[in-house]
Amino acid sequence: RCETCSKEEAKYRCPRCMKYSCSLLCVKKHKLALSCNGVRDKTAFVAVNEFTDLNLLSDYRFLEDVGRTADAAARHATVHNAATKKLLYCLRNKARRCNIDLRTLPVGFTKRRENSTTFNFTEKKFYWHLKLVFPHSHAEYTLKGVPDDKTLADILKPYIDPVESDPVVCQRLKIYTASPQSDVQILMKIENRRRNSIRYNELDASRSLLDNLKGKVIIEYPTLFVVLKTLKNDMVVLGQDGSEPAENSDGESSSPSSVEEGEIQDSS
């Protein structure tokens, strides 16, 4: 049966989220409801016992696409622009002085094009490009010019605060606005780990964005995952259950806890 209307026999299956649909109307409805773009995730994890020749061919074509993109980026005129190189060097250098390992991608990559992070020399602080992901509502928001001295709690207020949030945003994130603030948990992916061993640091909402980013590797800009503790029953918070100590990007133990990437989902 169609998973959107539950009335007609399914004819189509979404390559992205694998939802069944019976018609173009239901396809559009499911994309709107789940914020699904309908494009297959070429980097999705596939277990070894489920790996087929089609998966191998898909990976081969993906690597070819990556090679073409990298080659095109290397030939791009902006790469050799002295002003661009100086700006990127300055950003990385300022971040390093703040104990942040900021890394940039070649021109042509999506995150490189999107990134609007700047450093204000007069105020001596960063204005970050920031992405917020709300897995339980299947929603993402992009913020620009976020000052590094702003606390994470203040950053999230326009989204999950029942009083200060925008009515449209509040409706979409109602599962968050209806939950107590103590139930909200902010996570950030730890970079430079194996794909089958992805972990997340838990951030402190009461501290500034800069304080939370210190000691971490950032590729282009930070992406924060906002989850609810009561809805992630299948998520293992490392460092709290004794199964494995939390680790930072260098593989050393650190105070923030981490969770499995595959377990960030709505378990309601």
From TrEMBL:
GO terms for biological process: box C/D snoRNP assembly; maturation of LSU-rRNA from tricistronic rRNA transcript (SSU-rRNA, 5.8S rRNA, LSU-rRNA); snoRNA localization. GO terms for cellular component: nucleus; pre-snoRNP complex. Residues 2-36 form the HIT-type domain. Keywords: Isopeptide bond, Metal-binding, Phosphoprotein, Ribosome biogenesis, Ubl conjugation, Zinc, Zinc-finger. Interacts with FBL, SNU13, NOP58, NUFIP1, RUVBL1, RUVBL2 and TAF9. Interacts (via HIT-type zinc finger) with the RUVBL1/RUVBL2 complex in the presence of ADP. Belongs to the BCD1 family. This is Box C/D snoRNA protein 1. It comes from Leptosomus discolor (Madagascar cuckoo roller).
